[in-house]
Amino acid sequence: MIAGTQTSMAAHGGIRRQIAGVDVAELAHEYGTPLYVYDAAMIRRRCEDLSAWDTIRFAQKACSNLAVLGLLRRLGVMVDAVSAGEIHRALAAGYSPHAPRAAAADGLPAVHPIVYTADIFDRESLDAVVTHGLHVNCGSSDMIEQLAERMPGASITLRVNPGFGHGHSQKTNTGGEGSKHGIWHADIADVLRRAEWAGLSVSGLHMHIGSGTDLAHLAEVAGALERIAGEIGRSLTTISAGGGLPIPYRPGEEHADLSGYFTLWDATRRKLEDRFGHRIRLEIEPGRYLTAESGFVVTEVRAVKRQGAKPYILVDAGFNTLARPVLYGSYHPMSLCPRDGVSREEGLPQEEVVVGGPLCESGDIFTQSDGGFVATRALPKAAVGDLLVIEIAGAYGFVMASNYNSKPLPAEVLVEDGRARIVRRRQSVEDLVRGETV
To answer: Whole-angstrom Cα distance, residue 431 to residue 423?
Structure first.
């Protein structure tokens, strides 16, 4: 079930001169480096992959730029928010807070454009949910009573921890006893009593076991969800398979068999419809899958040197720009663009190099494995002024960027129909100290 036919479009250590038909060198010249670039066509392609599902709900924590959210909204994708700030972003991108009054033409229950998903309400988020009347996906029983005090009579979704999890890193595993996420599966009966006492109805059920997991583990969720749905009963009108869809980062990896995954979940949905006697909306909640392959970090080579036997390429992006390698030991494909687009033979021998950034930290290395061990990557021989392109960086990239070492946040650019436009300006040093006092 994890075999597929589509392979990654990453360059994997070669020469890359264009992103979505636009010259990399021109992008760097126009907008500076480091720079985030997104390919709108790739986002559209990944949305089309999931068109069989009733609802695609984007986990915007993966890539929350307003232009990206606006593009997804126009493609019919709903949105998930995990904070008051993300609620504000969704509204600013044009999402309506309320579901349409009329049911869908196919008889399915109305879809909530914005759903707030969390394990707690901080005070700002609860205020925002109440102000806009948003649907809530509750990850703890305490949220139920807190919501009932402010929004009596609301319907809610329960996020359930099925007792098992899986992910590309232990840090992205969101199920089992080692995870803080979700309501423990054995506590559902008590939670349902609390919801009934509080006057809230449970209309949705959501399960998510980890980000970057494989489909074999994701498929286990369907059986667990079906069992919990039986405890909730006929009030259930929506089920969510969560997210975590894997994508290929390394050479030879393939996209997953999404048609098989949908068939599995559709069968689960149909069993519940037969059991309850009404239609059930089937949602999927991807984050990484929709945006990861669309994103690139363009960074300039600023030094080439040796540390003993190891050659190093040092660039002007660091883990303040892209944190995934230092957080998870994540692999990102890399390619080289010769400076100023100067021609260079494609068949030149590659060399194994360490790629690092400018930060005052030994861990500021893009070629490292889980645990922080320095690794190397095969790349064409680089010179100062060349551009290094870090690929598949459109998920958990800019959203995790920081001002560490007082580095301004990079600009973001969206390429659509062969034209690049800036969708977030680069921070200035004045921006860094705005709001501070001596």
So the answer is: 17
